[in-house]
Write a structure and sequence with these properties.
With about 110 residues, this protein is of the alpha+beta class. It contains 4 helices and 4 strands, in the order E-H-E-H-E-E-H-H. Strand 1, helix 1 and strand 2 (about 30-35) form a beta-alpha-beta unit. The longest helix has 28 residues, at about 65-90. About 0% of the residues are buried.
């Protein structure tokens, strides 16, 4: 899965932000760092790029587009955990039916 990563920094210390930007870009070139002078400017960046939606009198909320991104990211994390559980089950001879039963029990726990 190919996705963009975004970081917003609200800080008056532009030099520190630029240094952080360079370090992060070395680790992951897809990261986008917004350097905002204050929180209001950070919100403006996020709103401009469609990450949040702001409604007067109600506040700012994650946009629908980013809810989908978040859900995809959470699914990827869940898949990693399920892969680990499947590997443990295989190595330990735990039947698939037992793993399925456990997953269903955990999933339905709060309902």
């Amino acid at each position: 899965m190919n996705y963009m990563k975004h970081i917003v920094i609200a800080d008056d210390e532009r030099l520190q932000c630029e240094m952080l930007n360079q370090i992060l870009k070395q680790k992951d070139p897809e990261i986008i760092v917004y350097m905002a002078a204050n929180g209001q400017e950070a919100y403006e960046y996020l709103q401009r790029d469609g990450f949040i939606e702001t409604t007067v009198g109600r506040g700012s909320f994650v946009s629908a587009r980013n809810k989908e991104f978040y859900q995809e990211e959470q699914q990827r994390i869940a898949e990693e955990h399920l892969q680990a559980a499947a590997n443990i089950g295989r190595v330990s001879n735990i039947p698939l039916s037992k793993l399925t039963e456990l997953l269903t029990m955990f999933y339905m726990e709060d309902e």
